[in-house]
Amino acid sequence: MHIAIAGNIGSGKTTLTRALSKHYNWKPLFEDVDTNPYLQSFYEDMQRWSFNLQVYFLNSRFRQVVEIRRSGKNVIQDRSIYEDAYIFAPNLHTMNLMTTRDFENYISLFELMSSFLQAPDLLIYLRATVPTLVEQIQSRGRDYEESIRLDYLKSLNDRYEAWINSYNLGKLVIFNVDNMDLTKPEDLSVVIEKIDAELHGLF
Hints:
The chain has helices at residues 13-24, 39-44, 46-71, 81-94, 100-114, 130-140, 150-166, 185-200; strands at residues 2-7, 27-29, 75-78, 122-127, 171-176. The protein is α/β, with parallel strands linked by helices. It has a single domain (2-200), classed as Rossmann fold, CATH 3.40.50. The longest helix is centred in the N-terminal third of the chain and has 26 residues, at 46-71.
């Protein structure tokens, strides 16, 4: 079983990944932020480092998905490989933070990789407005995220909505996290109940 959690920066993906991993006793696979050699440089100079960062994430997540299928274990993944290609890279290109040459090269690489991949058995999308994202980004206090622009978060949100509205690769569950606290047992139980229903076809 492969479950992926999708959502914008600060939507609560890592928090939910940890909680579900503990509840179901699934193996968690987290986004590589602490050891990512490009992330801080990217936020300091997006135009210079956008292509490098996106290729790094693409490679990292492709390796994760290959590992998931090889392991035969139940795995929950913090962010899917599709978000890199359908959200972040096109957004950087549109904002003139990635050249057309680099973007086309990136998409060509993604298309080749994705032809070897199997989609998650369930995709969980955490929907959040920009004020919620900003609040949660500030609360976790990562230095390199202090320079994230509001228009950047807004444009990512718009792309997430467009992608989710056309997502047809497998089962999908959406949670609006503006009025949820995924660290609270009562809110987490709502999430788990809906996931159980999707996975086991109870409704």
